[in-house]
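Example record

One chain of 569 residues, shown exactly as stored in the release files.
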Amino acid sequence: MESTALSPAERTRALAAMQEEELDVVIVGGGVVGAGAALDAATRGLSVAILEARDWASGTSSRSSKLIHGGLRYLEMLDFRLVREALRERALLLRTLAPHLVRPVPFVYPLAHRLWERPYVAAGLTLYDSMGAVSAASRGVPRHRHLTRRQALSLVPSLRKDSLVGAVQYYDAQVDDARHTMTLVRTAVAYGALAANRSRVTGFLRQGERVTGVRVRDLESGRELEIRAKQVLNATGVWTDETQAMVGERGQFRVRASKGIHLVVPRDRIQSQSGLILRTEKSVLFVIPWGRHWIIGTTDTDWSLDKAHPAASSRDIDYLLDHVNRVLTTPLSREDVEGVYAGLRPLLAGESEQTSQLSREHVVGHPTPGLVVVAGGKYTTYRVMAADAVDEVSRALDGRVPPSCTARIPLLGAEGYDAAWNARHRTATRYGVHVARVEHLLGRYGSLVEEVLDLCADEPDLARPLPGADDYLAAEVVYACTHEGARHLDDVLTRRTRISIEAWDRGVSCAATVAALMAPVLGWSAEQQRKEVEHYLARVEAERASQEQPDDETADSARLGAPEIVPLS
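Predicted C-alpha cells for this chain:
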C-alpha cells in the first residue's frame, strides 16, 4: 500500500468526487470511530466518504487519557465482556495495526492496606492478564509483578514512604490519540475513501421518510454541497443528539457528555521509572509517562455547556493536584503545570446521576431508513464499534458485503516499522541527524519517517527545531499540511504536534514561525497568516483565563472568548 497525502489538492478532489455519484455510505464525524468506520467500509469494497466539521480528532479523540487499555475499573464493575474485548484490541494495536503509535507502558499501583489488599489486587490483575491473552507474545505486554515497599520506592522515588506498604506493577499501552485518528483517515483514503475536514454537515437529504444523503458547507470556501448516499452513518460522539435532531425526530438513545481534564507536567517534577495508578473516591487517577512529560488525569463530571471547547476550571485542576499530592514527597503546584486539556466522553445516558457509573458499552441503531447511528464506547474499542456500525450499514445495502477485515489491516507507517527502527542509526547517519531525533520521528510516523526527512534533505532549513518546541522539526509543520490534512495553525500546534500542552508558553513563541511555514503550502495571504497567529494567541489566553475560574459556568464563559478561526474570503 502506497502512502497517501491528505493534501489541499486531495481535499478539493475528494469534495468534487463526493458529488459525482451516489455513494454507498457517507460518514458524519471525523473522530476515531468515524475514521475507523471509513477504513472498515473502504476495505470491504464500499464507496465511502467521511466528513468532519473541524479537524480530524478535534473533539474527544484528541483529548483522552491517551491510553489503550482494558480498564481495570470495568473489571471491578464485573463488565468482563468489555474488558476482554478491549484487551484483545490492545494486543492488535500493539502487534499488528499500529506498533509505531501504540506502545506498552508500566504502572505501579501502591498498596495502602496490609493483609487483604495485595491478594485482592493480585486476583484482579491475574484475571486481567489472563483475559489479555494466553501468551506474552499475543498479549503484547508483560504480566504483572509484585513489589515490596523498598522495590516500589526504588522504581518511584517520589512516592511518600507512608503512602504505601507495597505495590504491584502491571502494563497497559498508550497512544497519541490525535495522530492515530488522523492516520486512520489517511489509511482509509489509501484504500479509496474520500475524506474532507472543515466540511460541516448542515442537514440531511430526504425522500419521504428515507435519508438519502447530506447537505454540507465547505467551511474553507463557504460553498454549499449536496452528497447522496445509500446510507448515512452518524458517528458524531457527544454531538450525536444534535446530529439526530437534524432529521427532525429523537433518536433511539441519548448521549450524555462527561468532562475529563488532564494536566501535563515536566518529567523531572516526579522522579519515577513507571507510571502510577491511584484510587480516588469516585474512580482512579493516572500519572502517565509522556515523552519528557507526565500526564495526570482524569476527572469525571457531567458537562452540559459548550461541547466544542470544554473548559477546565480552577476547581478541576485543584482536584487533580490534591489527589496526586497525597502520595508525592514533593507536592506539585500550579507553577509546575505546563499544559491543561479537557475532553468530553460520549456516555450512553442512563439512570445513574454519576457519570463515572454510566456504561462505556457502545450501541448501534437504525432509527430512520437510510440513517445508522453509533454511540458510546471507549477509544480502545473503536475498531469494534466501527465494524459493528458498518455491519449495520451493510444489512441495508443491496448485494453481499464482505465481513470486516480491519483486524488484519496495518495503518500507514506500521508496515516495515520494526525494520525502520532497527535501521535508525543508519537513517540518522544518512540524513545527518541525531539518532534520538530519528527515534522520536519513528514514534510519530513509523516507516514513513523518510518522507519527513526527505523534506529536510531538499530544504536544509526545515531540519531546524521549532523555537520553544525543540522536540519538533520545521519539516513536520510542512508535512502536516502536505500529507496530514492540517488546515489551520491550531491543527498543527494542538493535534499534529502536542506543542499546545507540552511547551511552557503553550506554543506562543513558535506560533508565528509555524504560520510562516504553513502559509505557502496552504496559499495564505499575509492577512490570513496574521489572523491565524492572532486567533491562536487569543485561544491560549482564553484557555488560561478559563483555568483561573472557580466553576464550569465561568470557565466556559471565559473559554468562549476565542471564537473559531474563519478563513478570509
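Notes: The mean pLDDT is 94.
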